[in-house]
Amino acid sequence: MRRVRPGVATRGALTSVAAGDTYEEPEDMPRLWHVTLSVSGSDVPLTDLRRALEQLAHDHPFLLTSRYASDHAEIRYWEEARDLHDAAAVALRLWGEHRQTAGLPPWEIVGLEVIDRETYHQRIAEGYGPPPATPVGVHPF
Fold first, then answer.
1. Which end of the chain, N or C, is less surrounded by CB atoms within 10 Å?
2. Would you say residue 29 has pLDDT above 60?
């Protein structure tokens, strides 16, 4: 009998799994990482910033929430990546790569936190760490 987890792409040939055997996740499979990116810079009009963050959310579909003020913003989202290094690299490119297309201000990245899904849920369960991203969307601080 061949068993494959639904929705999981496989590499190479399928192998038989005997009844009662457990599936072990390959180590190089992508994982989910919770990313918090903080940016800041010179004051910009709030309506322009909101529009730019809404466009960023449209361009980057995993964006959960953005909070903003005229001189800083915080973006929180889930990233699928093989490891923390890959998730952090994508996060560090996010603002610069979307600056032109979304109309984001020329702010610098001043903070980055990348944690795995287990750590995120553990923090929430223990009552500390970033609060759950609700409401989802773009909101002022």
1. N
2. yes
Residues 14/63, Cβ–Cβ less than 8 Å: no
CA distances in angstroms from 134 to 24, 116, 130, listed in the order given: 33, 19, 11
Q: Which helix (H) or strand (E) holds 139?
A: strand 137-140
Residues 129-137, mean pLDDT to the nearest whole number: 65
- CB-CB contact of 110 with 86 (8 Å): no
Share of the chain above pLDDT 90, in %: 58
pLDDT at residue 34 greater than cutoff 70: yes
Residue type, 37: L
CA dihedral angle for residue 77, residue 137, residue 39, residue 51, rounded to 10 degrees: 130
Q: Is the dihedral of CA 113, 133, 127, 69 positive or negative?
A: positive
Distance CA 91, CA 32 (A): 13
| CA atoms of 125 and 92, how far apart (whole Å) | 28
Residue 122 token pair: 């553990």
Cis peptide before 135 (omega within 30 of 0): yes
